[in-house]
Design brief:
7 strands, about 140 residues, alpha+beta, about 20% helix, single chain, Nucleoside Triphosphate Pyrophosphohydrolase, seven-stranded mixed beta sheet
Length: about 140
């Protein structure tokens, strides 16, 4: 299915990956969020479970191995064009995950990747949905 002007929403996954007091963020290399900081992840492929898709996407995008802990939230990302038509539509399953192996590096869909202290997230210009999901995952992790 084509991603731009799709005929239906595209299922996707993203990881809220913690290491100590830091969370991993990526600067997107492709539309619709090119140049923006967000969580690593991507589209689910046919025949793939959501958790398998997350492990694959994290490996492809940032070169890390992760342990998936729990589903944090489901987020709708809908981008409209100037005429009000749906240009992109993703349904993203956001998972809490822990870093278990590897050093982060920008691969495939990432221009940059970095660990950011959770207390300094506001300095990156992250979207409100992303900040809310990270905060929720941080609280889940503490339990």
């Amino acid at each position: 299915m084509k991603r731009k002007y799709p005929s239906m929403p595209i299922p996707a996954v993203a990881g809220v990956i913690f290491s100590g007091d830091r969370v991993l963020v990526v600067k997107r290399a492709n539309p619709p969020s090119k140049g923006q900081w967000s969580l690593p992840g991507g589209a689910v492929k046919i025949g793939e479970t959501c958790e398998d898709a997350l492990r694959r996407e994290i490996d492809e995008e940032v070169g890390l191995g992760v342990k998936i802990k729990a589903l944090v939230e489901v987020v709708d990302k809908i981008f409209l064009d100037d005429q009000g038509r749906v240009k992109y539509h993703y349904i993203i399953l956001e998972y809490l995950a822990e870093h278990v192996k590897g050093r982060p590096r920008a691969c495939s869909d990432a221009m940059q990747v970095k660990w950011v202290d959770v207390a300094k997230l506001s300095l990156l210009g992250l979207g409100q949905d992303t900040i809310r999901v990270i905060d929720k995952a941080w609280k889940m992790r503490a339990k």
